[in-house]
Amino acid sequence: MLALALLTAAAGYAETQENAAHNRSRINELLKNSTFYFLDESEALAPYYQLADARRQAILHSPTAIVKADTFIPGETYTGVAYYVSHNGDDKNDGLSPETPLRTLRQLRLKCCLAPGDAVFFERGGIYPVVNRPLMLWDQVTYSAYGEGPKPVLTMAQENSAREECWELWYEGENGEKIWRYYLQVGDVAAVIFDDESCARRILEWPTPKGWLALDIQEKDPAHGDPAVGDICGRWQMQSAQEFRTVEAQLTENLTYVSRSPLDEFKKYPFDYDQGLRVGDLFLRCDAGNPGTCYDDIMVIAVQRADTPGDTHFAQVLDGGHAAGWVLDNLSIKGFTGNAIGGDRVITDRALIQNCSVEWGGQTLCAGWIKHSWPQYDGSVAVDNIFCVAKNATIRNNYFRQCSHAFMFESGQNPVSGMGAYIAEGNLIEDCAQGTRTYMGSDGDALSFDHVLIRDNIILNTGSGMTSYLCFEEQVAVDLGTNPVQYARHIEVCDNILLGSSQAIFRIPDSTQVEIDIHDNVIAQDRDKALITEFQWFRSNELIWYMMKDAK
After folding, report:
1. Model pTM?
2. Which residues contact 186 (CB under 8 A, 6 or more apart)?
3. What kind and span of H or E run contains 105?
4. How far apart are CA 76 and CA 286, in angstroms?
């Protein structure tokens, strides 16, 4: 009996070793010349975190180097008229010099007839609220910064809510729980951000004719045998808790919030949230006292009403979907409910985004694109920093944090050919639900891109940010899709530093169908977490997990 047990154990050990050797061989084939570390190898990883710190400081403090010249070189020169906007300006000014700047984006729209080659400069240190409609970008116009200090901030936050009168005590519990109601009725609140350093956690609910229904969020772990329900790529599953809870019953932890609009405004059930903006109460739990006195700065990011006919709300800060050849340089987009920067697959050609910071994108329940599926819930809208700006686009030397996807281009439907090159390089991405996501469908032999290049980026702590628990997609540093199509002639991912992910470092399509050149990256991951997930459409029609422990 003992001999049989030993033989059985030896056979099992041999099979395990054989599987590990096979996986290691596959990992080396897929991730050529990569350097692997476990996340607990702190001494070995210290130089890479130092590189990330240095890059963060370099991007956040990058000077404006755009000058006027006779030839337009995107990101370096402009050739036309320069307009200036300052938080200390006056809308009665002409905006044609730093001494006579405009004050608001509204007057920029009204007074400045932008033409190709022109430039718009925002004074550094200023905050420029984007109210009721996104700032439209124009053909071959450069948007940058002037003056001294931090980058100019474009935001959907309408004010600094760190004032005592902004919050009234609504509930106080026996154990010191304090829940505060915001003084304004606001649209669906996507984020509450404190001192540009931390945020309140949203408690998701679902409105029904009988009341606000509590939802349970359950973490899935397919890599360790937890069967995936619904989207096998997602980390989270959400379902009804079968309870209609009061606000105080929902906010069981400090610095959490709910955003509730009146239920009698909903005309049908299940609800379709694209039918109009609804405003309601924001309840924030802050046990330390009145939030307005506990913090120096509070950004309440809520869905706003649009002033464009036919739109019920707007969710982008900068809209480049109707123009080509525009340049964004040295701007900070901070606090938004939809996309920080949006584009169009066909129209937005030769866009350049450089030296910018994009931070604190929230998540909305009521903003749109959601239909209720009972008893399962389809999820909230988690936002993208840069979305669909991909036709011959370059995204370089930018800093991203605390959003869903840093920069994203995908379309499994309605594939578009002639997209040219897509280059993302020199960026720093940290604490986002997903790093970069790039893939498309392909119409027969017509490839979408000539070249996709993801190079020299640093991506830290994927899946650990504000929107991570509301991002119902696979939380990976580099997502190259699941579609079994070759969407670009050359897909190259190289010279990146990818340190830590809550789920996996890479997601790739079936490698027997799609050629991807992944090489010379530095990769660190927890020993017991996934390194690669591969959707093997043609071989087994299943998701294959390659674990980090097999890489070393």
Report:
1. 0.91
2. 259, 279, 280, 282, 300, 302
3. helix 105-111
4. 47
